[in-house]
């Protein structure tokens, strides 16, 4: 299971509650229901893959994939040279906060399945010392989320530390030419 910083979780929960209150009609019933946990929309798919000119999503799915995810899907479908990858839907974020900083096992399995597909499409393996899979973790939600950039930077820093400790000279050369202070 993955966990988040308590401050970021509290900020997002507060913002979600305010957003729900702003959208709902002004009545005591809607004010009472705003204090109940928000259920994520039922989604059959939580992870969307893109590679080799075909994507599970498209540009009209910004609410599901976020802006960057929808853009990547559209560029892939248009035949532009986009490296293979996958997008975790915005519904997972809602579920994560509903479940008190936990991702349900079924979604974790779906992420793992797509990671294996990505390793196959890229011809590299995450954590490999011979041919490591290099990934970019990006936040692309439709609305800015407090703490998300810190989470992305922490993930990227952890990945950089692990990969730079490997024997991959290609990664070290690439990292040294693009390394900058956040």
Q: Can you put this structure into words, describing what you see?
A:
There is one protein chain. By secondary structure, the chain is mainly α. The chain has one domain: 2-Layer Sandwich (Dna Ligase, domain 1). 52% of the residues lie in helices and 6% in strands. The protein is built from seven helices and three strands; from the N terminus they run H-H-E-E-H-E-H-H-H-H. A three-stranded antiparallel β-sheet has the order 2-1-3. A hairpin with a 2-residue loop joins strand 1 and strand 2 (54-55). The longest helix has 18 residues, at 6-23. The radius of gyration is 18 Å and the shape is globular. The relative contact order is 0.14. Residues 21-35 have low confidence and may be disordered.
Brief rundown of the structure:
The chain is mainly alpha-helical and 182 residues long.
């Amino acid at each position: 299971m993955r966990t988040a910083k308590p401050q970021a979780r509290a900020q997002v929960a507060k913002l979600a509650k305010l957003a729900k209150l702003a959208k709902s009609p002004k009545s005591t019933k809607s004010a009472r229901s705003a204090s109940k946990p928000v259920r994520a929309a039922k989604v059959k798919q939580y992870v969307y893959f893109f590679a080799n000119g075909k994507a599970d999503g498209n540009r009209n799915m910004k609410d599901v994939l976020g802006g960057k995810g929808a853009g990547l899907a559209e560029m892939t479908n248009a035949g532009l040279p986009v490296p293979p990858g996958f997008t975790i839907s915005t519904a997972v974020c809602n579920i994560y906060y509903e479940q008190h900083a936990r991702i349900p096992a079924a979604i974790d399995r779906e992420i793992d399945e797509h990671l294996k597909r990505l390793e196959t499409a890229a011809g590299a393996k995450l954590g490999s010392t011979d041919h490591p899979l290099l990934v970019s973790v990006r936040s692309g939600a439709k609305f800015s989320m407090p703490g998300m950039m810190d989470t992305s930077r922490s993930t990227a820093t952890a990945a950089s530390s692990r990969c730079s400790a490997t024997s991959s000279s290609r990664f070290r050369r690439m990292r040294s030419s693009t390394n900058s202070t956040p």
